Model the fold of this input.
Amino acid sequence: MRLAVVSDIHGNLEAFKEVLLDIDRSRVDAVVCLGDCIGYGPEPDQVVSLVRRKNIPSVMGNHELGLVNKSYLGWFNQPTRRSLLLTRELLSSDTLEFIQGLKSAMVFQGCRLVHGFPPESITTYLFDVSESQCVLAFSDMQEKMCFVGHTHVPEIVGFDGDTVSRGPLQQGLRSLEDGNMYIINVGSVGQPRDGNNRAKYVIWDSSRQTVDLRYVSYDIAITVKKILELGFPEFHAHRLW
Done:
């Protein structure tokens, strides 16, 4: 099973289209999404429509949660709240209904999918989780693999039954240890924050026990121009570079 895992597209249609082209060339068996298809970026409705048209299973991200739960909207900083309010205006009623129906977590082909942290936290950042919290999460997980997003920074956390190891997930192919459990942050398609401005996603090969962090270039200037033209916060455009 070769599974492509995307996350945090954030309305960046240009990046998402290039990632899908790369996925098509990589001959995967399925694609899944870890949420935050919307927010920050200029084409949220088009991104969600493409996710649906491609039949990509998706869980809810914290930006989707901000639209369906008004009490959570206040958790965001002011520029992000402004971005979400603008995002809402760009979404069709059909898209809003789809977003409201997203689940906080799912199990797909034997691996757990959640935006923040297992078992089903939409809002917990992996960088905020202690080693002891990781041990508890691994102990409670029925699955050996869990994919998360939310931080926009690729990371790999392993557990051999006794010890937790964690560190950055680097570009390219990485072999996994047989018998170990993993939480893998796949980074961000639409707004990476790891010091490299290319779109990121992961391909997991369950037969070969490997993960492949892919870097995909796209025309950032097009997305930046659209963000500014629509009146989104300038910061959300400029940090794409």
Summary: The longest helix spans residues 13-25. The two ends are 34 Å apart (CA to CA). The mean pLDDT is 97.
